[in-house]
User: Fold this.
Amino acid sequence: MRQAIGRMLGVSGSPRRDGNTDLLVREALRLLAERTGARTEFVRVADHCIEPCRGCRACMTLGHCAIQDDGFKALMARFFAADFLVLGAPVYWLGPPGVMKNFIDRTHGYYTDHTILRGKRAALISVATDSGFEPHEAVMASWLRVYGAEILGSIRVLACEKGEVLQRPEEFGKVSQLVDRLVPAERRAEA
Assistant:
C-alpha cells in the first residue's frame, strides 16, 4: 500500500506573481486536496526576503546557514513540516530563476545532513517557452534527491506570457495528468 500523501506544500519559484507557475502549482494543490482530502499550503519563494549565499562556508561547521536575519528559516520550516512537495519554477536560461536558486543555494548549510528531506515525496512542474527543460530539471531534481526526497512525477509545460497557460488547455491539462499519476485510481476511490 502506498503511503498517504498527508500535508502538501506547493512552492512557486517564479518571481512573477500569479503567472503561469503560480497557476499550475495552485491547480496541482487543488486537485491533490480534492482527490485525497489532504491539507495544502501554497508559498511563493519570491514573497520571502532571502539573501543570496555569501560563500562564507561557515555552514560547513555550523550545520546551518550563517545568515540568520532573513526569511530563509521560516520558509525552510514549511518544507520540514510538509509530507509532499510540489515544486514549480519557470526556466530562466536553462535553470530556475534567481529567487529559487538563491533558496536552493542557501540550503547548502544543511549539507552536513543529507537527510533533511528524507521521507518526503515530491513532484516537479517546469514551465518554459520552448526549451531548457533538461538542465532546469537537473538542478531542481538533484537538489531534492541530495537531501533525500523521492520524486514521484514531473511535467513540462509550454507557456510564456502571464496567464497564457489558461489559454492552452492541452498544457494546463498536464497538471491533471500529473495528479493522476501521483494519486492512483484506487486511492481516489478511498478519499
The domain at 11-183 is CATH 3.40.50.360 (Rossmann fold). DSSP finds eight helices and five strands in the chain.
